[in-house]
Amino acid sequence: MTRVSLEINELRIRRPKKRWKIYFVLVVEHPTNAEQMVVTVVPGDPIVVVPSQNNVIDFQGSRPDAEGLFLLSRTLPESRELNVHLYVRHSRISTRKAGDILNDIKDELGTGNFGEIADILGTTAVPWLAIAKSALPLIGKILQKIPDRDMGFVSLFERFSSEFEEEEEIDGEKIGGHINIIYSWYINRE
Description:
Elements: E1 2-13, E2 20-29, E3 36-49, E4 56-58, E5 69-75, E6 81-82, E7 84-90, H1 98-109, E8 113-117, E9 128-132, H2 136-145, E10 149-155, E11 158-159, H3 163-167, E12 169-176, E13 179-189
Antiparallel strand pairs: 1-4, 1-5, 1-13, 2-3, 2-7, 3-9, 6-11, 7-10, 8-9, 12-13
């Protein structure tokens, strides 16, 4: 069985302000139900960025054995494609928690959501919300209603081609809005 994992290695903010409280809204294809997507907020508390960081969050740091910010791990789909959407947000409320944001999304979706799921996509610490695939276009609109700053959106869609058979790790960089994301997809063969 082949599993794929996704991590963020670095986030660069291209704005003059030097203080931020960053969090990510992650939307991924449901691993077992083709009609659903799953949504979560990572991490549980926003990441505080201070002026000495020069608007860069280095999730790997200087340690050689360090890994990035883990987002997900799942069995490689039969199609060898995985659709992942990443929204980067700046919290304007110091005490905002991931659960509050997930509840805001859940409330706005109303009957279009299917409830919370635990222990999915390789994570046990964060809750996920299962939504209908048809509700995917609503996520961006719902996030606009939350009084936090939109820092950018990137699609981390990946088609796992033959290069993954040889490399086992592919690094990429995407630009969206006011941010650059450096990320890695990993292949784990069990």
